[in-house]
Amino acid sequence: xxxxxxxxxxxxxxxxxxxxxxxxxxxxxxxxxxxxxxxxxxxxxxxxxxxxxxxxxxxxxxxx
Length: 64
What we know:
The protein has one domain (6-58). Helices cover 20% and strands 31% of the residues. The protein has one helix spanning 46-58, and strands spanning 6-7, 17-23, 26-31, 36-40. The protein has a 4-stranded antiparallel β-sheet with strand order 1-2-3-4, with helices on one face. A hairpin with a 4-residue loop joins strand 3 (26-31) and strand 4. The longest helix is centred in the C-terminal third of the chain and has 13 residues, at 46-58.
């Protein structure tokens, strides 16, 4: 289960990401077209998910 949805900072001003929600072993990302996608420790893996969580909180680099 994910925490409440947060607005992505988009500090680079060119991201298609609008919102995200963090879970203990996952992140859900919503894009500007409204679609959402879940990433978890199974796919793409723990290291990538933890990096994505950090980038989401920093508001930069999540869509790269």
